[in-house]
Amino acid sequence: MTTSKTPRDTETETSAAKSSKKVTEGINLARSAELAREIREFRRRGMFATLLFTTAQNATPVHTQFLAAIESYLEHRHGKLYVIPIRYKNPTSHWSQVAKSHDWWAPEIEDYLLTERVIINQNLMVLADIRTQPTADSPLSGFDAVSRDKSAIIGHTKIEMKTVPTPQNRMPKILITTGAITRANFTPTKAGKIGEFHHTLGATVVEIAGPKFFLRQIYALADGSFIDLNYEYSADKPPRRVGHIEALVLGDDHFEFMADNVIKATYGEDGIVEVLKPKYLVRHDGIDFHNRSHHNRKDPIKMGTVYDTDHESIEKVLDGYAAFVDTHTPPDTVNVFVPGNHTGEHMTRWIKETDPKVDYANDIFWCETYKAMRAGAQYTKRGVEEIDPFAYWMAKKLKTAKAVFLKVGEPFIKHGVDMGFHGDKGANGSRGSLRSYRNIGVRTMIAHSHSPGIKDGAFQVGMSAEYNLVYEQGAPSGRLQAHGVLYENGKRTILIIVEDGWRAEGFKHKRAPRSK
């Protein structure tokens, strides 16, 4: 019995048959050691380097077009390729039957195979000595402590990412898998077919600049082409500059506590918005509502300090945020405001639970908001539907920025990715989580948790606020300043902000030598 073959497999079947006598038996450990020394030399010399990590399954041909696109990328970006080999026994595989053996890797990548655990810099390592199972549902499970205090890259045929909570005096660890450069090759079993469904033609990009590193993901199309930032790479064409990305999903704004480094990296000169030119800026939790949150209203210390420092006015916060959005929105870009718990929900609770007669800083604003909500409420076949007070006021206060305000539950879908969920609510009334959204069968990009991650078809962005917000203090934290990108080809990536940078190009370090 053999696995079903798709049209794109046809070209590789012939090449596998012809090269069955030339396949790589085992792995060239001397070459692997050479690659490990190369990475250590980058670290020793504090070089700027672009490293591409992906995975190859044994007894499986590479995706030749993807490899060609990667080679174009390496030339253009001055990069280095490292392929982590993993094993999987598939007796039904056509390619294994042709080669009469499972213990081989495609000869096209034998010079890139890395099998050692290597420290890339003082904050990141690659666990290339670990062979994960391609059918693993959660390939990062159990690895939280393995890399000790460092972030880690692990070879696997799909891309998964999560942050690991660390003490709050440092950024959280990141664990990420790589995606694959080989074709899908699984047994016709439940585990095999699920693994085949999640098989990702892709790679993890690492840019290092001394002790700093920047991670992002590459997802290739069926023809092997992919986009990284503002360039598209393919097998048979030179790199093409991409005019726009479809959307930039921003980490939760929390305007009152927005971090200066995030503002600079996102909206400043050579920042994300200027370089990638998003058609849409998708915003979550625009304001924190700290000055009248139901979490704080009965706390005399917090409320007294809010009063002493003249931070009581809700309208002043909205005025400030509207001015910020106007200032930082390019003319051709549309803001999409997603309903969140800190905006509409906190503000709605304040309207319903507050006695305006004793809130002198906000009494008139309360009355105007209550009047608008009362007049805007409608009795429908689904029950009483209310307006979002945050959306109501922001629509009035924005002067130049284009904006769309989503209603609760309203989708915002581009290229098959729904960016209309905040992420605080899960299925059937449960609490929202990345894991719950990976199960709904629709590709999503959510926010809310402040901890970026990737789990199958679900992506989650981080935050734009300062680290260690008061209500997050006192425990190890996985919070990270990070945004999400949706490219024009429908693929996505997470951009992590380090200090005031979002890619290593802004940091001046000696470059690694060009790949041969």
> Order of strands across the biggest sheet?
20-17-16-15-26-27
Rg value: 25 Å
Round the mean pLDDT to the nearest integer and report it. Answer: 89
Strand segment count: 27
By DSSP (H or I, 4+ residues per run), the number of helices equals 13
Main β-sheet description:
6 strands, mixed
Total discrete domains: 2
Can you describe what's shown?
This protein has 516 residues and is an alpha/beta fold. It has 2 domains: 7-242, Purple Acid Phosphatase, chain A, domain 2 (4-Layer Sandwich); 245-486, no CATH class. 25% of the residues lie in helices and 23% in strands. The chain has 13 helices and 27 strands. It has helices at residues 10-18, 29-45, 64-77, 94-99, 190-198, 260-267, 272-276, 300-308, 314-327, 341-353, 363-376, 389-397, 434-437, and strands at 24-25, 48-57, 79-86, 104-105, 117-121, 124-127, 151-154, 161-164, 173-177, 202-209, 212-219, 226-228, 231-233, 240-241, 245-249, 278-284, 334-338, 378-380, 383-385, 402-405, 413-414, 417-418, 443-446, 453-455, 458-460, 482-486, 492-496. The strands form 7 sheets. It has a 6-stranded mixed β-sheet, with no helix packed on it. A 5-stranded mixed β-sheet has the order 5-6-7-9-8. Helix 9 crosses helix 12. The longest helix has 17 residues, at 29-45. The radius of gyration is 25 Å and the shape is elongated. Residues 1-11 have a biased composition (Basic and acidic residues). Residues 1-23 are annotated as: Disordered.
